[in-house]
Amino acid sequence: MRTLPLLALLLLTTPALAEPIVGQASVIDGDTFEVRGTRIRLHGIDAPESGQRCKDAAGKDYRCGQVAALALADRIGKRVLTCDPRDTDRYGRVVAVCRIGSEDLNAWMACEGHNRRPHRS
Predict the structure, then answer these.
(1) What is the CATH number of the domain that holds 49?
(2) Containing domain of residue 87, as a range?
(3) pLDDT score for 121
(4) pTM > 0.85
(5) 37-73: string of b/e by CB count within 10 Å (b at 16+)?
């Protein structure tokens, strides 16, 4: 019976059960931004780092990290996000599914080609 209070405490502090984080975002890179002082990484997205370079279909270098960050910043603009926490990563960032209204930003970033590979927390 001693495990019951511990289990209840664990369930109440699990990120998946946390309240949504709502507010305007400041983009850090293509999969991370800050909302009201909380660093959030998009769940399931691993966008290139801000300074990262990639090769296009013709083999020419381009700043894919900057492209991903600018795409995310342009999509968000000054609109309010709602982020549903799923986990916390090893850097202490909240890992979340985020939306602008009904649009899933995680899915949008993947569909736009800004996901290098499925990311594991």
Answers:
(1) 2.40.50.90
(2) 15-111
(3) 41
(4) no
(5) eeebbbbbbbbbbbebeeeeeeeeeeebbbbbbebbb
